[in-house]
Batch of 3 targets.
Target 1
Amino acid sequence: MSEHEAIVALIGKSCLTLDDGNFESYLALCAPAYSYCIKVWSPELRKDMVWLEHDRDGMAGVFESLPEHLQRSGRLSRLAAVATIDAVDADKFDVVSKFIVHHTDVEGRTQTLAVGRYNDRVVRIDGAVLLSEREVELETRDLGIGLHLPL
């Protein structure tokens, strides 16, 4: 598999593991120094709002605490399209992907929940490509209630 294909597959797997609620497998795709952040631009404040920001251990804590939170019934489906892959150096890549998240309720009705951009830093460690940073840049500012999952 080429480097480009491995990076595209990594982004795809990150979506699939979250869709399946397989949080352990999601974290296995992440480097030890992983960081995750959700930002959204506020025209009223004229600056980014940070809705979630954690390192790898913090994300593990988010996943562990999910059963304690009110959850939206149904299923989320994420679709990401890799737009650019830029080499920073031989073992670091900046990857930009556009994404859309759909929610399908228990009656089978599907609606768009969120759209935005993943700004990822991918690193190669011992031959494996891993996420080291994911900044979620949301266009959607109203996600409703009961969403405690990473996008």
Target 2
Amino acid sequence: MSKVCEICGKKPIYGNSVSHAHNKTRRRWEPNLKKMRIDLNGSILTAKVCTSCIKSDHVKKAV
């Protein structure tokens, strides 16, 4: 299951968790995706959309 926003293409980013002793282990930050029904050019479909796209009105919610 891919963790990519279908509107803006936001995907997980990678980095390091750094402990108090400065040990580094790899980790990843996932985008905050929600599954919702959207109206895209007159057709209604289900898509995984990040919350920043929902808040900024890049998508139109299907009624």
Target 3
Amino acid sequence: MIPQPLAQSLEVFRIGDPKGRFPIWDAIGSTVFPGRWNSGSSPVIYAAQSYSLAMLEKLAHLNGILPDGQHYVRAILPAKLSILTVTPALVPGWDSDPPVAARRLGDRFVAEGLSAVLRVPSFVARIEWNFVINPRHPDFGMITTFMPEPVWWDERLFARI
């Protein structure tokens, strides 16, 4: 895989609780609760290509429980920032459970440090993209983040008891 510079800046989104145990724009949570593309030894920040995909990803991890205090953070990946893109064909079994192949690739991405960002397919919305961001990469500081804003959840998205 060869990193490619972004042709133009790209907006990404992440949702979390600013008063919660883990800051929204921080990798600590990914070491405690590893994701599809990292093990606990590879701290990363996950973001989505759109606000709605960030909501969908959050819903997939909440098991139908309406979350309190959720906010979103918008971030700008600047033009010329190097990015590696992973397609499903490059990682057979990326969508397996447990995600052994995906985690192996994500851990390699962090360890080798070839780019600050890894673009990966969303498990939830397979034709959309998530971004795995390496906060240890020297180019991480090029990413601009904005103040958290509240997320409004439509209660119809959640189970009624």
